[in-house]
Amino acid sequence: MGANEFLFLLTGLKWTVLLSIVGFIGGGVFGLAIALLRVSGRPLIERITSGYIALFQGTPLLMQLFVVYYGLALVGLKLDAWIAVAIGFTLHASAYLGEIWRGSIEAVPKGQTEAAKALSLRYVSRMRDVILPQAIRISLPATIGFLVQLIKGTSLAAIVGFTELTRAGNIVSNQIFQPLLVFGIVGILYFLLCWPLSLYGSHLERRMAIAAR
Amino acid sequence: MNYKLDFTPVIDGMPALLMGCLGTFLLAICGMALAIVIGVGGVILRDSKIAPVRWLVKAFVEIIRNTPFLVQIFFIYFALPLAGLRLDPTPTAIIALGINGGAYAIEIIRGGVQSIGKGQIEAGLALGLHKAQVFRLIVLKPALRAIFPSLTSQFVLLTLTTSIASAISAYELTSVAQRIESDSFRSFEVYGTITLFYLVISWVMMRFFDAISTRYFSYPVK
Amino acid sequence: MTKMKTTRRSVLIAGAAALALPAVLSAPALAVTPAEIKAKGKIVVGIQGDNPPWGFVTSAGKQDGLDADIATLFAKELGVQVEFVPLEVNNRIPALTTGRVDVLFATMAMLPERAKAVQFSKPYVANTIVFIGPKKDKITTNEDMGRYTIGVAKGAAQDTQVTKNAPANTTIRRYDGDAPSIQALVSGQVQAIGGNIFYMQRIEQARPGEFENKLEFQNLYNGACTRLGEKEINAAINSFIDKIKANGELQKIYDKWMKVPVHKFPDSLEGITFTAS
Questions:
Q1: Fewer CB within 10 Å: N-end or C-end of chain A?
Q2: Distance of alpha carbon C240 from alpha carbon C260, whole angstroms
Q3: Which residues of A106-133 are buried (b: 16+ CB within 10 A; e: fewer)?
Q4: Total of domains in chain B
Q5: What is the radius of gyration, based on Cα positions, of chain A?
């Protein structure tokens, strides 16, 4: 494998990173909304959001990408392929992050909400200043765990034809016919991206477990 | 452009799609079984007295958990023949699913075993329980209870992951759907429909696991 | 992973939401015309990314190949930029019919069953679909294919041909594209593959002297594809193809990639119309 091929893989890596970042940020924004609606105390809204979460957690990411990729175009939204894929990942991530954050919002002791209410804090300030800062801390390990999941998930964009790291690997492997070498390198690149995050996540988890003891 | 939805190919292909669901179940169940074997074996080796063995298990877990399944399955599929092992796509997919699920199972099972305090075992013995009783009541059941939720949601995830096995032409729902799609070019209808199939499959699994959990793991301990 | 908490009701809602989606989707979109493309300033072309010399991405990341050259020439004719969307074999027609791309220059063999889903232009290049097997074996009839495990690219012309011509119980493995099917042959996961006339060049690089073209299926012609009923863009492509056939531009592209004289193209093909109605 020459320098050219390796550079091509790095271009793919760039798209993998971009796609992950966009999916994570978009998913974070929508996920927070989902989480808040999920604990809004209104049965109808809670049911709809829980249905949304069930839909995305109960179907394969590959299908979600296919349906969003072709579906967006069908409603007349002619977006660049990569934006369509990014929307797919945003929806996917918002369901998972919404569920993770719902769990951690509920994990904040009820007394906190009651105390905040007693201090006559309004909803926005109660959430922003009291509940969410604690919930975010609780959710960090799971959130980072999901980010790793998301980065790995971007490899499926290859199947809808988006040239990120895995597809770049496919293309290079087809030019030089050394699948083991190419997929080995592709695997290493993913590993270098994900492993530090995983380590950080389990470090946080351990620290919290100790603090909880 | 005026796209008219047409579900005829999906309806005509229904028998094939249902067979595909069976293929998905087969991959998932065999994959899970292999994952449990790897998981239990891995936990034992993970605490081996021989340091390199411990390192190997640790490295295995980290590598599998930090690389995409698609890359893993390509690697295994194209690597096995070089090692002289030529398997059909379906067994290859089961191996890949088992390896992937196994790495997660090792971590989950290990967490469950560690959650049993030494003190509890000693207390059990002090109460005059047999060693077998201690293992069954104090170690096994609580550990299973502790790992059951995360292990089963990992299994549901593994079932959804089987769709990726279509990339090496294993027989399962997604590949059947792709077959119908390439004959009819009705991608949205086909994928939309099987998305619902997957939703039902994962729902059935979750119900099943929930039922087991209520039957065997609910308090008070029987 | 988080513990999934799913109630029966939430699954029902999710299912209902998924079912309701098609209703939202029936909003009609406008047909693409050359005038619109000119106004937009770019044409979005669906092409293959891993099937040299037809359409492939070079290791420098540039889209290249015969199809790329012709599409670029067509864009120049319209006076617009060209944007390539590399597609997997099986996703080409869906990408067009759902509006992801304006036109396909994507090694699209002109087949009657495809003509029901998309509008073909006049043919611009010829291709032969072949069966590639081990050199040492004697393979002379379609029946002989039954002895092999055969790889093909999902939904490609060779998939159609092999499926149609091989004995009914033949094991056929379908992969996501040309590249993985060749990879499967090279790594020994299949013993034979269906492909086109250029596959052997690539197989020779990886496993020299072991395989050869054994059977030839029908000669096929490739055309550009647009959506059914889009008359203006189809007409624009047809007159463009006539023009490059007449002025020698097509021969130049042939010289670069095919290294043969331009084929004689038929005026009609059974079950396929070249002009949108």
A1: C
A2: 21
A3: eebeeeebeebeeeebeeeebbeebbbe
A4: 1
A5: 20
Q: Where are the beta strands (DSSP E) in chain C?
A: 42-48, 50-51, 55-57, 63-64, 81-87, 103-104, 119-134, 149-153, 171-175, 192-196, 211-226
Which domain does A78 fall in, by range?
3-212
| Cβ atoms C102, C233 nearer than 8 A | yes
Closest chain B residue to the Cα of C4, Cα to Cα: B153
The interface residues of chain B toward chain A in range 175-204, judged by CB-CB distance below 8 A, are 187-188, 191-192, 194-195, 198-199, 202-203
Q: Residue B175's CB: how many other CB atoms inside 10 A?
A: 23
pLDDT in tens, A59-73: 999 999 988 888 887
Pick the residue of A177, A178, A202 with the most C CBs within 10 A to test the interface with C by mutation.
A177
- Chain A interface test: which of C59, C203, C211 (most A C-beta within 10 Å): C59
Question: In this structure, is residue B62 part of a structural domain?
Answer: yes
- Asked whether the beta carbons of residue C174 and residue B154 sit closer than 8 angstroms, the reply is no
* Helices A132-153 + A81-107 axis angle, to 10: 140
Residue-wise pLDDT tens digits, C212-257: 999 999 889 999 999 999 999 999 999 999 999 999 999 999 999 9
Q: Assign B40 to helix, strand or coil.
A: helix
Residue of A13, A55, A82, A104 to mutate, testing the C interface (most C Cβ within 10 Å of its Cβ): A55
Percentage of chain B lying above the pLDDT 90 cut:
59
Residue with tokens 């995830």: B157
Which CATH number does the domain housing residue A51 bear? 1.10.3720.10
**C-alpha gyration radius of chain B:** 21
What is d(CA B168, CA B73) in angstroms, rounded to the nearest whole number?
8
CB A194 within 8 A of CB A151: yes
| Total count of residues recorded for chain B | 222
Question: How many structural domains compose chain A?
Answer: 1
Q: Among A57, A81, A174, whose Cβ lies nearest the Cβ of C179?
A: A174
Count the neighbouring beta carbons within 10 Å of the beta carbon of residue A180: 14
Domains of chain C (ranges plus CATH)? 34-127+220-257 (3.40.190.10), 128-219 (3.40.190.10)
| Closest-CA distance of chain B to residue A49, Å | 16
Taking only residues 115 to 144 of chain C, the set having a beta carbon closer than 8 angstroms to any beta carbon of chain B reads 117-118
Partners for C (CB, 8 Å, 3+ pairs)? Answer: A, B
Cβ contact, residue pair C100, A48, below 8 Å: no
Residue among C73, C72, C92 at smallest CA distance from C82? C72
Q: Which residue in the set C13, C24, C59 is minimally distant from A48, CB to CB?
A: C13
Q: What is the ipTM of this complex?
A: 0.87
Check residue B2 and give its pLDDT. Answer: 59
**Tokens 């013995």 sit at which residue?**
B125
The CATH number of the domain where B165 resides is what? 1.10.3720.10
Structure tokens at C11: 């699954």
C:89-118 residues touching chain B, CB 8 A cutoff:
90-91, 93-94, 97-99, 113-114, 117-118
CB-based burial label for B87 (10 Å; 0-12, 13-18, 19+):
middle
Chain-chain contact of C175 with B169 (C-beta, under 8 angstroms)? yes
Put simply, the answer to whether B74 touches A183 (Cβ < 8 Å) is yes
Nearest residue in C to B84, CA atom: C188
User: In this complex, is the C-beta atom of C154 within 8 Å of any C-beta atom belonging to chain B?
Assistant: yes
In terms of Cα–Cα distance, which of C191, B187, C98, B86 is closest to A78?
C98
Decide: C89 and C178 in contact? Cβ < 8 Å: yes
